[in-house]
Predict the structure of Phosphopantetheine adenylyltransferase.
Amino acid sequence: MNKAIYPGSFDPVTLGHLDIIERTSKMFDRVIIGVLNNKSKSPLFSVEERVNMLKEVTANLPNVEVQSFEGLLIDFVRKNDARVIVRGLRAITDFEYELQMAQTNRVIAPEVDTIFLTTNLRYSYLSSSIVKEIAEFDGEISAFLHPAVAEKVREKLTARR
């Protein structure tokens, strides 16, 4: 069985992320979305909330699983007996960082490959940070997020105020 890991913080999961997830699910027998629990950051959503949102919006993809992890990505990849990491690229600036990470991971784990998928052009500008900033100023975010996720963002920001 060929298995891929798609890691990220997904705070929140955007339509760009979902595009990569759906395309990856067509290429691999099993896709594990790894939701990073980075304790040095203060995300809008807890890791549990992000995992649950991803489970909800990928429920139609039977070969996709969602797990949280902390620590090194390579350790998570090995724990799940995967051999491929999938990363999405929006722009050349993403490529520079992602290439550096892929090369570092390759030194640590030569058995693991990283593949890059370019995002659909309609999402090439999109990031979770941009969506959160728009939402914080009560801007319209429905063009960027699954409806269920957009509602959760609005609820979270309303509760914070």
Helices lie at 15-27, 47-57, 73-79, 92-108, 128-136, 147-160. The mean pLDDT is 94.
